Structure formats: structure tokens, C-alpha cells
Amino acid sequence: MSIFFTPKMKKLIVGVLVMLVTGPLWAGNNNRAGSAGVPQLLIMPWARTGGLAGSNLANVQGMEAMTFNVAGLAFTEGIEVGLGSLLYMGNSGIYVNSLGLALRLGESSSTLGLSVTQVSYGDIEITTTEFPEGGLGSFSPNFLSLGLSYAKEFSNSIYGGITLKLVSESISNVSASAIAFDAGINYVTGDRENIKFGITLRNVGGQLKFNGDGFDVQAIQQNSVNVSTLQSRSEGFEMPAQMGLGITYDLYLSETSILDLNFTYLANSFTKDQFNFGVGYGFKDLVHLSFGYLYENGITNTSDRNTVYTGPAAGLTVNIPIGKGGSVLGLDYGYRFTNPYNGFHQFALRFGF
């Protein structure tokens, strides 16, 4: 019997078709671009996924999967710890830093994960209406996303996971926070388990609303010496929800070489939808070379493009075995082509044991 006509596969295909049909109704349009809050949630902080231009939604595994498709967390064997850093917008001094921890629960089919993403903006000079040139010191904005994930291997073919996230953004006297969740499913099939499908829903949650002393304004009442403190009210804003569908096909060139072909469609609620393509070559689980391309409507036209990415991406992963116990030290590098800022560099350090 063909793999495409098994009962499990039929259910998956029907589900994907339903999501494809209803996706345009759920997703937003370009007129809503820029109206969501915390767009930092859409930044891909990990170098391996960045080097594939985000095309590996069906193939991302381990602690890195918590950021893109949490179902891939279920493929963790043992313990995996990772640190990632992205130099954002050239020499702006903005860094996106990530920490990931994945822990397989003994001999069970369940995995727990902890993920932290923090954006460092550096120091910004304080200015006021009285001191527009500054001279009052500086402040440091902060963005933090803290996620707790659970993933499970339901069978040899079906994997699923969910992440609960606390999202916070603040300066010294104004802050906003909210709870969001991600969910994902992976389906693996083929004679050599070389066909993979992925579905994910990210950044679904309540509105964020800024509050704090920064909204207070002191004013002297008319015809009086009394000083009143007035507070401006801020409007709430939604998170940049995203739905993703992905497929990966692993082509075995030999017993030691694999060519993985990746495609991911991302339906964004507050900006243009994206089509991500990627190809990777792996040798003996030691070296992986990747190339990717992100496409969205207008990306090739400078006047129509509303993303900093121009499309191409590339990456390199090196896994170094440590000792005889199966421990591995992983080094990842990714490069995203951009205009302006002359490209983004991504680095990651992983340790699995």
C-alpha cells in the first residue's frame, strides 16, 4: 500500500488541506503590517534554521525546535543545551540572544524544554522636552520571551508539542507582558523515514498593553498653584500570530551522505505570507552545509519590499564527537542576506549528551 493512502496519512492530508483553504481567511494582509506588537517573536535566533531561511519547519529538531516547531523537541535524545546569538541590523549594537535546554524524561517518549530569548538594544540616551539634546543619562530597553515546552512521541510517525510563553517588553518606567502559546505536529513516513511533514501555530495569546509611570504627566491647574498628575491610557496590541506548513524530503546519496530538500509556507497575520525553500547536505552527522531562500510578494523590488531580508541565506554546522559516550559539541553559523545592514550573522554553540 502506498504511504499516501494509509489511514494516518489520509487524516494528515485532509487536515493540511483544510488549513490551506482556511488559511487566507485567518491570515492578515499587508495593510496590517506594523500594527502588531512584539515583532521580535518572529525573529529566528538559531543559526541552523537561519541558514536554511526558515525552510526546515518539518525537519527542525532538538532544543532549537522550541522556537520554530515545538514538535521537533520530541526527537531529543538525552540532554541538549544551546546558546545562540544574532547580531541584528549591522553595527546597531542590537543582539538577539537565546538559550535552549531540552531534557528527555528517562526512557519515556516525553521531552521537556526551556527556552529563553532576550533582545539587547544597548544604551539609549534619555531626552525630554526640556532637554532634547540629552545629558540626563541613558536607559536600556528590554525584551524577553521565556518558554516552557512539552513534546511527546505518540508513535513512530506522529510527534507533537506545545509551548507556554511569557512575553515581556519594558523600559525603566513602562512595561507590558502577556502569555502566549505555540503548538506543533510532525508526521514522519517513508521507507527510511525520509518524508516529513510539519504543522505549527505560533504566538497565539492575549493582547499586550503598556502601563507604568511613564504615562504620567504633571500639570499645573489653571488659575491655581496645585499640581495634578494625569495619566495617558495606552491601547492594547496583538501578537504576531503565525501558522506554518512544512515538508522535508531526505535523499540518501550514500550511507554517509544525505541531501535534505525543505519547503515551508508561513501565513502571517500582520504581514505578507512567506514561502521558504532550502537544501542541505549532511555528511556522517559531522558536517551540514545549507542554503535557503525566502520569498514573499515584492521581495525582489526595493520599493515594494517591506522586510530587511532580500531572500538568500547560507549556513554551516560542524558536530564534534566528545569522548566515547556519544556526547557532541555542535558549532553553527548562519548568514542572512539583507538590504540595508550588509547581512546578519548568526552563531550558536550546542552540547548534547
List key phrases describing it.
single chain, 353 residues, mainly beta, 14-stranded antiparallel β-barrel, 8% helix, elongated, disordered N terminus
What is the strand and helix layout of this fold?
Elements: H1 7-26, H2 47-51, H3 65-68, E1 79-88, E2 94-104, E3 110-120, E4 124-125, E5 138-139, E6 142-153, E7 158-170, E8 175-189, E9 195-205, E10 216-220, E11 227-231, E12 242-252, E13 257-268, E14 274-283, E15 287-295, E16 309-322, E17 327-338, E18 344-352
Antiparallel strand pairs: 1-2, 1-18, 2-3, 3-6, 4-5, 6-7, 7-8, 8-9, 9-12, 10-11, 12-13, 13-14, 14-15, 15-16, 16-17, 17-18
Describe the overall structure.
This protein has 353 residues and is mainly beta. The chain has a domain at 3-248. The protein contains three helices and 18 strands. It has a 14-stranded antiparallel beta barrel. The longest helix is centred in the first third of the chain and has 20 residues, at 7-26. It is elongated and about 85 Å long. The two termini are 39 Å apart.
Kindly report how far apart the N and C termini lie: 39 Å
Strand order of the largest sheet: 1-2-3-6-7-8-9-12-13-14-15-16-17-18
Q: From N to C, what is the helix and strand string?
A: HHHEEEEEEEEEEEEEEEEEE
Q: What are the low-pLDDT stretches, counting only 5+ consecutive residues below 50?
A: 1-5, 20-28
What is the number of helices? 3
Radius of gyration: 22 Å
| Total E-strand runs | 18
Arithmetic mean pLDDT: 87
Q: Specify the structural class.
A: mainly beta
The helix content, as a percent range, equals under 10%
Strand count, sense and closure of the main sheet? 14 strands, antiparallel, barrel
Strand percent estimate: over 45%
